[in-house]
Every structure is written in structure tokens, then in C-alpha cells.
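Propose amino acids for all 161 sites.
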């Protein structure tokens, strides 16, 4: 019974991760809101969780190890989102992560003009809000909640066998 519950919870997290990724692409490509570099990085944990949870559902023998990986993934997502929120609110200065596209060290007149023509999105500029909150803010809570859920699954793993 509890094994079914664990599997159901993992499937719900999987579905939520898929919805989160699809929503991000919808906001970007359909609604036209360009993401900053941190927004793009914040998608990686969701894509990773889709792969990891799929592996958990297929390979039952390594489920406990993959649960640890999933905890690390969502705790990382929480930290990245918290960092992004800090930049948005002005608590933290923008870092080089927010300017990953400028890897060109050749500062000719043409390259500077080309970079100025490109519309780069700053990590501190919020281009899309829901109920007045940025997606980074939502991601803080979502990542923390999923982290707690997966930690609880891991801690109760032996009880549910």
C-alpha cells in the first residue's frame, strides 16, 4: 500500500515537473517573455527531475540512490531560485551568471555594436509575474515543498518496504 503511495507521489512530482517546463516554454515562446540566464538555469532541475523520476519508476533497485539525487536536485533548485530572488530584490549584485552570453573578449567596435543590438534580459528585471510575484519567487516555494516531500519519501523508505 505505501509503495503505491510513494509511486503516486513520485508520479505527481513528475507531472508537476513536466507542467513547470511546459509553462516556462509557453511563457517564453507563446507569450513572448524572454527569460534571463538564471531563468534558463532554473529549468535544469525540472528537466533533471523528469529524467530521474522516470528512472526511479523503471529501475526499482536503485530507487533509494535516485531519491538522494532528486533531493540534491530540488535543494539546488531552491538555492538557485533564492539567489535569483535576491538579485531581483537588489539584495545581491548581478554576477557573471547573468551575463553568460558575453564570452567574447575581443572588444572591437563591431562586436560592441552587435552586443548592444542584442536584447539581453537582466536577471534583476522581472518580465513576467503571477499575482504580483515573479516566477523565481514561486520557484523558491515549489522547490522547497518538493524537497521536503522527497526527503520525507527517503526517510520513510525503509518503513514503506
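Proposal:
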Amino acid at each position: 500500500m505505501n509503495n503505491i503511495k510513494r509511486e503516486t507521489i513520485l508520479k505527481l512530482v513528475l507531472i508537476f515537473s513536466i507542467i513547470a517546463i511546459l509553462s516556462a516554454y509557453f511563457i517564453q515562446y507563446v507569450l513572448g517573455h524572454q527569460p534571463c540566464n538564471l531563468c534558463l538555469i532554473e529549468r535544469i532541475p525540472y528537466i533533471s527531475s523528469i529524467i530521474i523520476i522516470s528512472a526511479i519508476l523503471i529501475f526499482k533497485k536503485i530507487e533509494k540512490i535516485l531519491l538522494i539525487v532528486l533531493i540534491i536536485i530540488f535543494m539546488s533548485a531552491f538555492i538557485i531560485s533564492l539567489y535569483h530572488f535576491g538579485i531581483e530584490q537588489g539584495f545581491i549584485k548581478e554576477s557573471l551568471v547573468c551575463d553568460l552570453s558575453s564570452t567574447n573578449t575581443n572588444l572591437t567596435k563591431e562586436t560592441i555594436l552587435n552586443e548592444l543590438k542584442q536584447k539581453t534580459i537582466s536577471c534583476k528585471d522581472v518580465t513576467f509575474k503571477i499575482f504580483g510575484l515573479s516566477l523565481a519567487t514561486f520557484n523558491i516555494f515549489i522547490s522547497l515543498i518538493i524537497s521536503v516531500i522527497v526527503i520525507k519519501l527517503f526517510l520513510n523508505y525503509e518503513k514503506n518496504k
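The mean pLDDT is 82. The domain at 2-96+104-155 is CATH 1.20.1550 (Bromodomain-like).
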